[in-house]
Amino acid sequence: MALGRLWAVPLIHIVLLLGLCSADDPFVFFDFKVSYITASPLGVPQQVIAINDKFPGPPINVTTNNNVVVNVHNKLDESLLMHWSGIQQRRSSWQDGVLGTNCPIPSKWNWTYQFQVKDQIGSFFYFPSINFQRAAGGYGGFIINNRPIIPIPFATPDGDIVILIGDWYIRNHTDLRKSLNGGKDLGMPDGVLINGKGPYQYNTTLVPEGIDYETITVHPGKTYRIRVHNVGISTSLNFRIQNHNLLLVESEGSYTVQQNYTSLDIHVGQSYSFLVTMDQNASSDYYIVASARFVNESLWQRVTGVGILHYTNSKGKASGPLPDAPDDEFDKTYSMNQARSIRWNVTASGARPNPQGSFRYGSINVTEVYVLRNTPHVTVNGKRRATLSGISYVNPTTPIRLADQYKLKGVYKLDFPNKPLTGSAKMESSVINGTFRGFMEVIFQNNDTKMHSYHMSGYAFFVVYPGAWTAILVSLDNVGVWNLRTENLDSWYLGQETYVRIVNPEATNKTELPIPDNALFCGKLQHLQTPQDISSATTFGGNRLSFVFTLLMILCALIPSFLC
Ligand SMILES: *[C@@H]1O[C@H](CO)[C@@H](O)[C@H](O)[C@H]1NC(C)=O
Ligand SMILES: *[C@@H]1O[C@H](CO)[C@@H](O)[C@H](O)[C@H]1NC(C)=O
Ligand SMILES: *[C@@H]1O[C@H](CO)[C@@H](O)[C@H](O)[C@H]1NC(C)=O
Ligand SMILES: *[C@@H]1O[C@H](CO)[C@@H](O)[C@H](O)[C@H]1NC(C)=O
Ligand SMILES: *[C@@H]1O[C@H](CO)[C@@H](O)[C@H](O)[C@H]1NC(C)=O
Ligand SMILES: *[C@@H]1O[C@H](CO)[C@@H](O)[C@H](O)[C@H]1NC(C)=O
Ligand SMILES: *[C@@H]1O[C@H](CO)[C@@H](O)[C@H](O)[C@H]1NC(C)=O
Ligand SMILES: *[C@@H]1O[C@H](CO)[C@@H](O)[C@H](O)[C@H]1NC(C)=O
Ligand SMILES: *[C@@H]1O[C@H](CO)[C@@H](O)[C@H](O)[C@H]1NC(C)=O
Ligand SMILES: *[C@@H]1O[C@H](CO)[C@@H](O)[C@H](O)[C@H]1NC(C)=O
Ligand SMILES: *[C@@H]1O[C@H](CO)[C@@H](O)[C@H](O)[C@H]1NC(C)=O
Ligand SMILES: *[C@@H]1O[C@H](CO)[C@@H](O)[C@H](O)[C@H]1NC(C)=O
């Protein structure tokens, strides 16, 4: 699954970029061609979104403090934004790839993201953030490795494996979108994919013949780091590997207290790293399972992801029933307690020394408190919508961050309420006014019947069980406009999101990077956009690439410390 790095950026561009950032931190370049391909993960051909013709996309695999440059070429028939989920974008919400910060990349255009993965480490993923495209794929892992001088709190694993799990529909994302726009629920998914592939035929009644399934080949006795991400739409999944312990070590960029689990619930948007030791006798292959949680098992058993863990010395195929899921489909206590058992290891160093023990929680002065409450979908202005605190968010056609940059008034309102509104829900572009260097307490109340995981861009993830609440404290130290959303894709699509706007009142260029040179313009700023010459934006491979590569090789030879 190694991603070939294409050195397709002209040299002038590289030199320019080096001028803007710390030359000590290396640049890594990626070219992403985002296009439809036909795949049949559940046995039925359908259009899925691929990156460089791969579904799922290749992992981005970089090191703390690298400057990451991704030239995204939109070969879809609709606009696109790529979001780097969990990447903090310090001082640069410009690169976050959501509608509050970026204009969508029009069909046939390309746009180059550039950001530094400053002080970060761990397992994340990327995905297309608009138009319900994540339901069609377009996602891949995003790994940030430790720098050599930073120790990790476990022995270096013998291998590194990314596993993307998620619920899946045979209907394509445009059809699913139509259902949602028409006020319909999506209904039960058709399956759960593991790395873009359907289930192994463990049962001939439940799984049709001829489905291509994921096989992960391992060596006996070795220990692998397995990074598991739920990239699906709305289904919480229980992840397990037959006869193998999952030693949890990291979640979304923080090391955890190390604990063994036989299975773990992974909610939409969550990422976990496990160390898995291949300590079995390989009398057969073993099942890798991702099964839907909190649902009627007899109805949902065909909606189960099944892959194969294959030892090189395996003596036969996996057979028999799948390893058992937790037997508590209508009781969330076990799952909740399991989630509570996951704790940060505050003594383990992260990307920088002791980042996890930096705050003394008792002495924090909370500057603002927000109670954010959802409900099951409601009807607003005749449309079926999802809400947060009684507001169903509407994305203005001009991104908030751009509107601020150009001092445009009336694009959005800075009036998001501290407490849920009473009365009927409304559709608004309502944004939270965050106090720079303040501490915001957020209490998420899940009044829906489904699980929700909330994500604040540039910050972290928070899981909220139905009928329960979760309180968090956010240090508002990152200037920018940050998306706060449910990861549940249908609820997000229908408006269960807002933004937190953090502005430094002092006029300085130190707390936020300037608007990028290549910023796209849209909405009220459309007149600033020059058309893109799409005929020249198609060079993949071919002569120019090898020319640039040759030049780079020469440059590397001349200046050994430069990128080489
Ligand atoms: C989605 O499927 C519908 C048919 O159900 C088809 O008309 C449409 O072109 C497809 N769209 C994409 C993007 O594949
Ligand atoms: C589009 O890609 C070309 C190279 O293929 C690159 O030179 C150009 O800077 C890219 N445009 C943007 C806006 O990133
Ligand atoms: C936490 O990390 C430290 C430092 O690497 C390590 O020595 C310790 O064993 C870890 N503790 C747990 C409970 O995982
Ligand atoms: C990521 O890169 C590291 C360091 O080069 C390598 O050890 C690891 O196997 C890579 N992981 C994946 C999933 O490609
Ligand atoms: C396959 O699944 C069906 C439906 O749950 C079940 O009745 C049957 O016993 C299973 N077959 C085997 C071989 O386990
Ligand atoms: C996890 O389980 C393995 C056996 O598979 C055991 O050797 C190890 O000590 C356990 N680790 C913890 C932290 O419980
Ligand atoms: C391997 O392990 C399985 C399950 O633990 C056991 O049933 C089987 O007898 C073992 N086979 C050998 C050859 O040891
Ligand atoms: C689960 O679904 C089956 C099949 O439709 C149904 O018979 C059963 O009553 C359901 N169980 C519960 C607890 O709702
Ligand atoms: C909180 O406020 C008190 C009183 O104004 C002040 O003494 C203290 O330093 C503040 N704490 C922090 C962490 O800023
Ligand atoms: C936003 O908050 C700041 C203080 O952090 C305050 O000065 C400003 O008036 C607020 N703006 C609005 C529109 O409420
Ligand atoms: C949602 O709120 C209503 C009214 O307060 C309450 O009756 C209901 O139990 C709540 N449902 C959940 C799932 O929290
Ligand atoms: C910030 O940078 C811009 C462009 O480089 C410059 O015009 C402006 O004067 C700077 N502002 C401050 C406060 O330094």
UniProtKB/TrEMBL annotation:
GO terms for cellular component: plasma membrane. Keywords: Glycoprotein, Membrane, Signal, Transmembrane, Transmembrane helix. It comes from the Eukaryota. Gene3D superfamilies: Cupredoxins - blue copper proteins. The chain crosses the membrane at residues 545-563. The keyword Plastid does not apply. InterPro entries: Cu-oxidase-like_N (IPR011707), Cu-oxidase_2nd (IPR001117), Cu-oxidase_C (IPR011706), Cu-oxidase_fam (IPR045087), Cupredoxin (IPR008972). Pfam families: Cu-oxidase (PF00394), Cu-oxidase_2 (PF07731), Cu-oxidase_3 (PF07732). Residues 34-147, 160-313, 398-464 form the Plastocyanin-like domain. Belongs to the multicopper oxidase family. This is Monocopper oxidase-like protein SKU5. It comes from Punica granatum.
